[in-house]
Amino acid sequence: MAPLLSPTDEARAAAERIAELTGRDHHDVALVLGSGWSEVVDGLADPDTAVTIPARDLPGFLAPTAAGHRGTVTSCLVDGVPLLSVAGRTHLYEGVGTAPVVHPAHVAGAVGARVLVLTNAAGGLRGDMAVGDLVLVRDHLNLTGRSPLTGSLFVDMVDAYCPRLRAAAAGAIGAAESIESDDPTADGPTVGNAGVRPAEGVYAAMSGPQYETPAEIHMLRALGADLVGMSTVPETITARGLGLGVVAVSLVTNLAAGVTGQPLDHTEVLDAGAAGSARLTAALRALVPSVART
Ligand code: HPA
Asked: How far apart are alpha carbons 123 and 291 in whole angstroms?
């Protein structure tokens, strides 16, 4: 079926500027690096292939306001696959509307990507989850009360997180994690799913910026959520409208409110990303070529 959406004019203008500045007029995969994931961009590229542009120099991007979001766009090759990565998201809670939130998805479409890889930090709701786990999003609950779409755009959301790409991503992350866990020099934590295929889960998107109450976490569990966060869902909806395949990976940065009895704070979220950055880099270095070639 033909896509219901086309990239916005601003996204096409950004793609043109990216092509001028990087010499690459096509990227197979686009990647959005969420809270705690920004460090990954440094280690992802094949040697001497990365060109980084401040996002504010490109049409449609806003300077990020949340700590841990860099505000850069990088074009590189990963195992020969042209990748465009955006380090720094705009969130619904910033109050600037949905257009800047989903701009990276439109840019992904405009640079020719077939696959959009979304990463995020999330609270884990399941008893078998630990800080540092990577979890592939299988489905989502849009509890933001918002959609990035307006008008009669009846985008299909069955298998929004493509099962075929998800299987490829799971295999790649599992292989990378087992190599990392054998590496005595790796700086990753020992917690997590090292050596096994990552878990899958349902991601509940809240509009934030406040974290949830224990009662809300209780409600989310009853609704079938495994993960909770404040991003990803608007981008997924837009990417599906544009006809892109979507893979989303959550890093469990904390156990959700009320699970441990401890208060939540944003530095905990960023610390979990920094502690695992070598693992996250290895996981994405494996995942990007794998989903591009699936
Ligand atoms: N709740 C909402 N968003 C989050 C969380 C959480 O517990 N952790 C990281 N992002």
From this structure: 25
Residue 46: DSSP 8-state: P
Mean pLDDT, range 188-217, rounded to an integer:
80
Terminal CA-to-CA distance of the chain, rounded, Å?
20
- For 15-51, the pLDDT digits (tens) are 999 999 999 999 999 999 988 888 888 799 999 999 9
pLDDT digits (tens, 9 = 90+) for 106-154: 999 999 999 999 999 999 999 899 999 999 999 999 999 999 999 999 9
Contact indicator for 40, 33 with CB cutoff of 8 Å = yes
Q: Write the single-letter amino acid at 83.
A: L
For each of the domains in the chain, give its residue range(s) and CATH number, in order of start.
9-292 (3.40.50.1580)
- In angstroms, the CA 249 to CA 273 distance is 13
Query: What amino acid occupies position 130?
Result: A
What is the sign, positive or negative, of the torsion defined by CA atoms of 8, 66, 95, 143? positive
- What are the DSSP E strand ranges found in 70-133? 72-78, 81-87, 115-124
Three-class SS of 144-211: CCCCCCCCCCCCCCCCCECHHHHHHHHHHHHHHHHHHHHCCCCCCCCCCCCCCCCEEEEEEECCCCCC
Ligand 1 centroid–CA 158 distance in Å is 25
CA-121 nearest atom, ligand 1: 9
Which residue has a Cα nearest atom 6 of ligand 1?
123
- Amino acid letter for position 114: R
Q: Which atom, in ligand 1's list, is nearest to the CA of 255?
A: 7
Tokens at residue 197, please?
């295929």
